[in-house]
Amino acid sequence: MPGVDSLCLDLSEQQNCVRACEGVWELYNLAADMGGMGFIERYRIECLRSVLINTNLIEAANRAGAERYCYSSSACAYNTDLQKDPNDRSLKESDAYPAMAERGYGWEKLFSEMVCQEYWAERGMKTFSARFHKVYGPFGTRDGGREKAPAVIARKVIEAKDKGCNKIIIWGDGTATRSFMYIDDRVKGIDTITHCDDLIAQPINLRSGDLVSINKLVDIVGAIGSTKLHREYGATAPRGVTGRNSDNTLIQSILHGEPRAPLREGMAKTYAWIAEQYAGRKLGKRIVS
Predict the structure, then answer these.
(1) Which of the residues are catalytic?
(2) Do 190 and 206 form a contact (C-beta atoms < 8 A)?
(3) Taking the alpha carbons of 52, 104, 146, 115 in that order, is the dihedral positive or negative?
């Protein structure tokens, strides 16, 4: 595309951040070494080391004269003691303190939010932190260990249908609850947040959709795939917190609305894309992993 540079760099290294920030006036930091709960639980050090990305990138952006800096935070920054009930315990932005974030990944996000706040307080750089809640959609990771629940379940349903087995294995007991955000909503949300001066240095929830259990998500994907599978539960598998939802009062009051793509609609698009990738791999085609 004309006027676009595509760079492949390790942004945990300072010199690479300097290169990436040349001529930048707005910067969106969406980089992190992370994945689904299986990855986060197993590779806590790798997740925690993502703090190097934000630390080096925000300094490079500030020195390059960037006017706005958006950081992709996470609901994992919230106090885990408030997420032990699968029912709707909506988390407002202030519930990140007193701090008790998820080990590794969550603490990295919480600290990096503070880094962004200090760059505004001391250097006057406009920083923004959006706390994402379970983003999904086409072109996301679908296998290999880093995939998240929506992609995992879609892939498992597709595999079960293809292999003719009437079974799907679910991590945990299926009662854990989450709210899921379609990728288009996230893109629109971060653009809106980054251009709202009322949100400078103010972490804000960015999620859409209603709270659903993993069992309900399986119901939705099964209906999309026109199949109903026998469920087996992995009690010893990583499961994360029991329940997580966000209080959207702040984003509604400041932005006068919230992103909201219906879960079934978003999952239908996600399922179709994963099914296409699955079929392509069987035919030996080069596919997106």
Answers:
(1) 105
(2) yes
(3) negative
Q: For residue 9, give the nearest of 256, 18, 281 by alpha carbon.
A: 18
- What is the tens place of the pLDDT at every residue in 110-161? 999 999 999 999 999 999 999 998 899 999 888 888 888 999 999 999 999 9
Domain residue spans of the chain: 14-282
Cα–Cα distance measured from residue 45 to residue 264, given in angstroms and rounded to the nearest whole number: 35
CA 148, CA 36: separation in Å to the nearest integer? Answer: 4
Fold of domain 14-282 = Rossmann fold (3.40.50)
**Stated pTM of the model:** 0.91
Contact in structure between 33 and 141 (CB atoms under 8 Å): no
Distances from the Cα of 36 to the Cα of 46, 52, 99, 105, 240, angstroms = 13, 20, 22, 11, 10
Q: How many CB atoms lie within 10 A of CB 117?
A: 16
